[in-house]
Amino acid sequence: MPGTSPVLELRDVARRFPGRTAGAPPFTAVRNLSFNVGEGEFVSVVGPSGCGKSTLLNLVAGLDQPSEGTVALHGVEVAGPSSRVGFMLQKDLLLPWRTVLHNVEFGLEARNMPAAERRERALAELKRCRLTEFADRYPYQISGGQRQRAALARTLAISPDVVLLDEPFSALDAQTKLVLQKNFAETIAGSNLTTLLITHDLSEAVAMSDRILVMSDGPGRIVEEIDVGLPDRDNPIARVGRPRASEIVKHLFHALHLGEREDA
């Protein structure tokens, strides 16, 4: 079960960007963002397109800095990219000239880890992600779902404290998506990783999360926080079959539209 220790904290965060044309007022992407994510907790963020979900992830990853407020990891303000934060995007971004094994080793090479040690760790992550038999293949030789699992193995190999997932299943077909969600859920729950998922898929949010944060239309702010309260977080397929899951999806849909009306 997830613990209660706050790993990730956002306090009164806002992010403004310069106007798109000369003399235009600044553009506010997000405002008044405040929430915590506890140790081992899986939190999803949902909201309409353009509400600032990607901006939120960039702030947590240290790829951008807030205009106001603070983002903190284990109580220390995030000032830039950190190896303690793993970031997975919609695209797997595997290097085509490297084998699956050597792709998983990539982040460890950047830390100057000895070759034998990084190979051992990479192989362990490939085993955990059920990719051992594909270690010597190149990205073009494996399926889209296998590529995403390889990207997860690469992310986990650096032993992050927090994993950020930016719609990692959105480009997959429905069947592959379900299988991969289950594989990710098992792996993340087994590792007790603190996880923040951005998704447009409301069913996915319910299937994988402990809590769901609903963002309004831009400038994005949190309009509701939902405690999923369902068992089987490590088995999304079992979760989505429960009657309460569909009730939460319906509630999320109405919460999103309520947020849009309030900001209109």
What does this structure look like?
By secondary structure, the protein is an alpha/beta fold. The protein has two domains: 6-84 and 165-263, P-loop containing nucleotide triphosphate hydrolases (Rossmann fold, 3-Layer(aba) Sandwich), CATH 3.40.50.300; 93-159, no CATH class. It has nine helices and ten strands. The protein has helices at 53-61, 100-104, 106-110, 115-128, 144-157, 174-191, 202-208, 236-240, 243-263; strands at 6-17, 27-38, 42-46, 68-73, 76-77, 85-88, 162-166, 194-198, 211-215, 222-227. Strands 6-7-8-3-9-10 form a six-stranded mixed β-sheet, with helices on both faces. Helix 4 crosses helix 5, helix 5 runs parallel beside helix 6 and helix 7 crosses helix 9 (243-263). The longest helix is centred in the last third of the chain and has 21 residues, at 243-263. The chain is globular. The N and C termini lie far apart (39 Å). Mean pLDDT is 88; it is low at 259-264.
